[in-house]
Design brief:
Blueprint lengths: L4 H22 E4 L3 E7 L2 E6 L2 E4 L5 E8 L3 E11 L5 E12 L2 H6 L4 H18 L3 H6 L1 H16 L4 E12 L2 H79 L3 H21 L12 H18 L83
Antiparallel strand pairs: 1-4, 2-3, 2-5, 6-7, 7-8
């Protein structure tokens, strides 16, 4: 049978088409984030990473397509009985990532279901060993314990559990009400304690303030007493200095100094009497002759104290410097036989019209002729006239 060239051409076309089909079937592009496992006659041989790969058709085939990105798995709500027998509803989420595609494909069947059931059982285990108060306040500790347990359990599967988060913990309504009352009572207790502590602290501070005030007042009184004592001492020194000046003036023969001193004291005493708050009756003008007699008696005492003789001689006190316009001097009277004013007997002063002309006045008796019985003095020459 002769060979037909047309049949040969058709055969070649068939071979070329078969080769193209075989090549097309063997080329396997792998997207980013996925990995494929390759099986030859049902046995795992290798893993195809993202990119363009070629497998032998009819001998190799793609076994499993594994997602290598991190995946989120919702944990459904379930009831958990705590250590103190409280029933709560708990749900959460799991974040995991496949690290080894071959293990994730051939070490466990239905990877997501396995991870989900493993997480739910460990949630009941971990949360069942805690009290309700710990359950509500220590979520971070619960998440850390769950992550450690589930990650260790899924390591043989080529899976890395990155995070486990408890989303919601829902106690029963009656338990929530009881917790609210407990919280309210606790907060009221804290409020009462804080209020009592504040009152106690305020009382302590108030007592400290009163103590400091009392100390400062005592120090002030102490300082004031020192100042008053110093002032009195200075006043006494000034008084003594003034008295010394008057004594020096009297010793020098100036009788007007003691007159001025006594008259000033007399006027000050009258002023104090007039300004006293007590009820009083004051008749003015006062009897000036008694004041003048007292001043004259004090002058006699001063003359006797300084030896009886003034610096002008003859026992007569110095009244001036002898220049024109000075006051006339009174006649000197012997002082040796004259008694002291404190030793004098009371004298009955007769009226000027009833006294005999030759009856001399008693020593120190105030008459119209003068307190010492001399000639009449001009106006303004008696002791104390300058202070009326």
């Amino acid at each position: 049978m002769p060979f037909d060239m047309s049949d040969f051409g058709a055969l070649m076309i068939l071979i070329v088409v078969f080769a193209v089909v075989v090549l097309a079937v063997g080329v396997k592009p792998v997207p980013q984030g996925l990995e494929y496992t390759v099986e030859r006659f049902g046995r795992y041989t290798r893993t195809l990473t993202p990119g363009l790969h070629y497998i032998i058709p009819l001998f190799d085939r793609i076994g499993a397509k594994m997602n290598m990105m991190e995946t989120v798995l919702d944990v459904p709500s379930q009831e958990v009985i705590t250590k103190d027998n409280a029933v709560v509803q708990v749900d959460g989420v799991v974040f995991y990532q496949i690290l080894d595609a071959a293990k994730a494909a051939y070490e466990v069947r239905n990877l997501e279901r396995a991870i989900l059931n493993l997480t739910m059982t460990n949630i009941r285990t971990v949360m069942g060993s805690m009290d309700l108060d710990e359950l509500l306040s220590e979520r971070d500790q619960i998440n850390a314990r769950l992550l450690s347990i589930v990650d260790d359990a899924t390591e043989p599967w080529g899976v890395k559990v990155t995070r486990i988060e408890i989303k919601d913990i829902s106690p029963p309504r009656d338990l929530v009400d009881a917790m609210a009352r407990q919280m309210k009572a606790e907060r009221e207790k804290r409020a009462v304690i804080l209020e009592a502590e504040g009152s106690r602290q305020s009382e302590i501070l108030r007592a400290e303030g009163e103590k400091q005030a009392a100390i400062l007042q005592a120090e002030g009184r102490k300082e004031a007493a020192f100042r008053d004592a110093e002032a009195r001492e200075r006043e006494a020194e000034a008084e003594a200095r003034a008295t010394q000046f008057v004594s020096d003036a009297i010793a020098a023969g100036d009788v007007q100094s003691i007159n001025y001193f006594v008259a000033q004291r007399y006027v000050d005493a009258l002023g104090l009497f007039a300004t006293s708050p007590n009820q009083k009756i004051l008749f003015l003008p006062l009897e000036a002759s008694s004041v003048i007699g007292a001043i004259g008696g004090i002058t006699e005492i001063a003359r006797e104290a300084f030896g009886g003789d003034g610096p002008n001689g003859g026992g007569q006190p110095r009244r001036g410097n002898g220049t024109a316009g000075t006051r006339p001097t009174r006649p000197s009277t012997p002082t040796a036989s004259r008694p002291r004013p404190s030793e004098r007997p009371p004298v009955q002063r007769p009226s000027i019209t009833e006294r005999p002309a030759d009856d001399p006045p008693s020593p120190g008796q105030a008459t119209d002729d003068g307190p010492w019985g001399g000639p009449p003095r001009p106006s303004g020459d008696r002791p104390g006239d300058d202070f009326r």
